[in-house]
Write a structure and sequence with these properties.
Radius of gyration: 24 Å
Largest sheet: 5 strands, mixed
CATH class of the largest domain: Alpha Beta
Shape: elongated
Number of helices: 7
CATH superfamily of the largest domain: Ribonuclease H-like superfamily/Ribonuclease H
Number of domains: 3
CATH architecture of the largest domain: 2-Layer Sandwich
CATH topology of the largest domain: Nucleotidyltransferase, domain 5
Strand order of the largest sheet: 6-5-4-7-8
Length: about 250
């Protein structure tokens, strides 16, 4: 442990007590440069057990400050941990072509597409979550966050894997934006009574129940769009792994 005798910024020995830090330590203020510091800084090493618990809690509907209280870490540490964790997420969303018979020509995949309302920073800043879901495996094959325009529908379509674009049938609601994006021969606009979009609508509900940023009336909403998108991506990557493991167990 290092014990300071001067200001870490300018080296001055002229300082005074200045309240306490959030961790209860005596804080000091440099009289020359105004830098705040503690005399006995301690950088606690967060254990692997706590890191694993943080990974699990980030998948549940708990606020970031709530996670900090549970595992006794600072918000600064958690935000840095999240940044590194999100940076490692794969672009393919951990999608696995599991449980399908290889000797069958892949025609046709059935997929369901839907969009869900959310917001960032304030409710007037609407951000729609576009989801494409495999009807058989229940895995998310693509997602996009943006407005509710045809351009956003097109960006979702661009993220759909080629094997689905070439061999898939896509069930959507009757929203106009889909019509000019998904090829007519593959597009099946349906009503809710058809029950052809039940799985993706149920997944939307799962997102709202599990990702705290998507709760309609709460203080856990995203302040930045990037964090909003990456938090959803993190949950989807975990969700796809869970679904693929379940399919592997089912098919032996």
């Amino acid at each position: 442990m290092v014990i300071r005798t001067n200001c870490p910024e300018c080296g001055s020995r002229k300082y005074k007590k200045n309240g306490h830090t959030r961790n209860g330590k005596q804080n000091h203020l440099c009289k020359d440069c105004g830098r705040e510091f503690v005399l006995e800084p301690e950088k606690e090493v967060v254990s692997e057990e706590k890191k694993e618990l943080a990974r699990q809690l980030l998948l549940e509907r708990i606020s970031l400050r709530g996670i900090c209280r549970v595992i006794n870490v600072s918000l600064t540490w958690l935000l840095g941990f999240m940044a590194n964790l999100f940076e490692s997420l794969p672009d393919d969303l951990n999608l696995q072509m599991t449980g399908r018979k290889k000797d069958i020509i892949l025609m046709k995949f059935e997929s369901e597409v839907d969009e869900m309302w959310s917001f960032v920073s304030k409710k007037t800043n609407k951000q729609w979550i576009w989801i494409a879901l495999d009807s058989e495996t229940r895995q998310v094959i693509a997602f996009y966050v943006g407005d509710r325009s045809k351009e956003s529908a097109n960006k979702l379509w661009n993220r759909v894997p080629e094997i689905y674009k070439n061999n898939g049938i896509f069930y959507t609601d009757q929203y106009e934006s889909y019509k000019d994006i998904i090829p007519e021969s593959q597009h099946r606009p349906v009503s809710k009574d058809s029950r052809k979009t039940n799985h993706v609508e149920r997944f939307n509900c799962t997102l709202r129940q599990r990702v705290s940023r998507l709760v309609r009336k709460a203080l856990s909403f995203s302040k930045k769009l990037k964090n909003h998108i990456l938090s959803i991506k993190y949950f989807i990557c975990h969700y796809n792994i869970t679904k693929s493991k379940a399919l592997l167990a089912l098919h032996g």
